[in-house]
Amino acid sequence: MDHSNTNGVADSAFHLGNFSIDEHRPMKVVVVGAGYSGIIAGIRFLQKVKNIDLTIYEAAAGVGGAWFHNKYPGLTCDIPSHCYQLTFAVNPHWSSFYASGPEILTYLESVVDKYKLMPYIKLQHRMMRGRYSEAEGKWRLTIQRPVIGDSGEVQYEEVEDTCDVLFTGTGTLHRWSWPDIPGLNDFRGQIIHSAAWETGEGGPNAKWQDSVASWGPKSVGVIGVGSSAIQLVPALQPRVKNVVNFVRGQTWIAANFVREHIVKMTGDENKADNYVYTEEQKAKFAEDPEYYRQYRKEIESDLNSAHAATLRGNPLQIGGKAAFTETMKKRLAKKPWIANHIIPDFGVACRRLTPGPGYLEALCEDNVDFVPTGIERVTPTGIQTTDGKLHELDVLICATGFDITGHLPFDLIGRNGVTLESKYTPHPRTYMSVAVDGFPNWFQGLGPNSGVGAGSLLLLAEREVDYAVAATLKLQRERLKSIEARPEAVADFDEYIDSYFPTTVFGEKCRSWYKAGKEEGRVVALWPGSCTHAARALANPRWEDFTYERLPKSKNRFHWLGDGNTVADRIPEADKAWYLDASEIDIPPVPLDR
User: pLDDT tens digit string along 295-326?
Assistant: First the structure.
């Protein structure tokens, strides 16, 4: 059989690709979730990856993730608002030092509008399962969406989709759970979970104040002492007959994070709970970008500096414990006995710190009862505690948190039928929190070990997206079928996690969602280091920690070189000196004379 080509030269098994080296291979990317991570991913994938087919599936009826779902009274971010925004999408118009939930949602909606993401977002499209096809090198997805039936009722159908790269940005605060308390279903009053706030009043888009408009004569029980409960109690206290806060654990109520910035603006040490910016200050932020950038940097730098307080034996940890104890006792002066039950024995930051503006003060009000006694059971009319006392209630609010074990709200099946569930049992094992062995072409944002004990969470979210984009560009540029974390690299990162946390306060005994709601055990929610440490770690991918498969017909590793041309070489009128463009030239600084 003649294997010579038209020039009479013997042919080989390798053939040049019929494409230019910089001709962008089509890439289909699916993002799951339209909260912070999903929005960042949509922006960056569209910006960086040319010739992309992008779809963002969001189960809810709106964008915003946790900030769309959560609507409970007092919902506020416990990180300064000017630190709780994207590095590239600043908002100089935040109304207060700590922004409310609705204001954060408005910000996220404005970012989606600014970057024109809505055409790519499919709302009310719930991811049900994803399975990796080894033959195709693609993810096959099952999506549930609503349809209107023949008689006008809402029904649901499942549709299929595929993608080259799958990015999940569902976060950790999406699977709320009811507390395991006997008799919970026997309660005849109104029972609500803080993460699914619905009172039957005010309508779906009403302010939270309207949702409790009829609660004036009611007794309201709040179970919990996490961030949600700490915000609920002071919000409800002036609007109801009485509040009963059932607290089984202890927690540090921090002096407001970076409170010196509030004191500087108010000039009053006693007015440092929150601060409402004046119109003049907001105008100054908007009109002087450099002034605003410096203001942001000062707050964020101080916030990141708190990382040192999470290290065992650090002077900031020791000093913080003494300072917080003094502050909490001072704020509880009207009911000093509460301090004996709520001030922890464990170190500062073992549980998530919250500034809790107004919480301790609300506990001291005459219409608020603090109940540290354990709950025996829920009765039809209230809660019976272990001392036999019955607390009569009209409304019971469970502010009892989320399932933060890292499990996704859908099935994900990787190579050889392995499930993500199995990889996350008994605890999640990941590669740098962004990938898992056995799951090619899949990356995640704010998954297991992606939280921060101090500092900027959104910095980490941005860097995780950048990592996924860089991997996608490598797949596209080198015309690869798959990229997959090596099992030994996952094992090494797991070992690093186990070695790091015993050096921190997070390894102490305290019940925390950092440890999946347990007092002791594996820290599954936090990055093993500071947030700036994570940013540095994720900045330059170690491609040697991955294995690769080439596309069919590309057995030679240099198949991606194509036909020896660039796109400009093949187009007569194209710019063939593009390397002289200002954006292409890296001009080194001239050394100063010594």
Answer: 999 999 999 998 999 999 999 888 888 989 99
